[in-house]
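pls design
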């Protein structure tokens, strides 16, 4: 699967393989591009390749800031919002 250009360079694709959702405390791997992006936008995210429960509030804050459904789950809508948001918070 190829990534897309957002005007800020290459954007990692949403991992549509076996994992469709990242839930806090879940065992799914592949979270790092999302976590890195939130950190670059100024959110205090400590997760690396897995979504830690400790970061759920930051994901919810990001969802609220982007005016998307706030549930703390990182699915396609939240992933896309993070990777296409242009300004830092």
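designed seq:
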């Amino acid at each position: 699967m190829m990534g897309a250009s957002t005007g800020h360079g290459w954007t990692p694709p949403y991992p549509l393989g076996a994992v469709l959702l990242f839930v806090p405390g879940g065992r799914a791997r592949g979270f790092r591009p999302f976590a890195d992006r939130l950190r670059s936008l100024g959110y205090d995210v400590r997760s690396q390749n897995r979504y830690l429960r400790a970061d759920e509030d930051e994901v919810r804050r990001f969802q609220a800031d982007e005016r998307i459904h706030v549930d703390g789950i990182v699915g396609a809508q939240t992933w896309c919002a993070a990777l296409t948001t242009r300004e830092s918070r």
